[in-house]
Amino acid sequence: MIKARVTVTLKNGVLDPQGKAIEGALGALGFEGIGQVRQGKVFDLEVVGTDKAKAEADLKAMCEKLLANTVIENYTIALA
After folding, report:
1. Is 52 left (phi over 0), alpha (psi -120 to 50) or beta?
2. Res 35: pLDDT
């Protein structure tokens, strides 16, 4: 079993209204000095097998087809 974490974030230059809302809410809660909040998604997956190269290739295909909108999002894959 191979454990993987896929992190998906918006590309630089893409507006992030949810991040902006979080930034404003943190300020309203009294947290000072917070700026440029960007939100993203994290997927923790378990891949059956022991071939890390195949698992990484499969995870990349998953990101390209479903997990990330590659027009506006970047993704990283970390295997454990």
Report:
1. alpha
2. 87
**Is 38 in contact with 19 (CB distance < 8 Å)?**
yes
Asked if 72 and 9 count as a contact pair (C-beta separation under 8 A), the reply is no
pLDDT value of position 48: 96
d(CA 27, CA 47): 40
Question: What span, in angstroms and rounded, lies between the C-alpha atoms of 72 and 63?
Answer: 13
Question: Which residues are within 8 A (CB) of 54 and not within 5 positions of it... i.e. 6 or more apart?
Answer: none
Each residue's pLDDT tens digit, 65-75: 999 999 999 99
Residues 6+ apart with CB under 8 A from 26: 34, 37
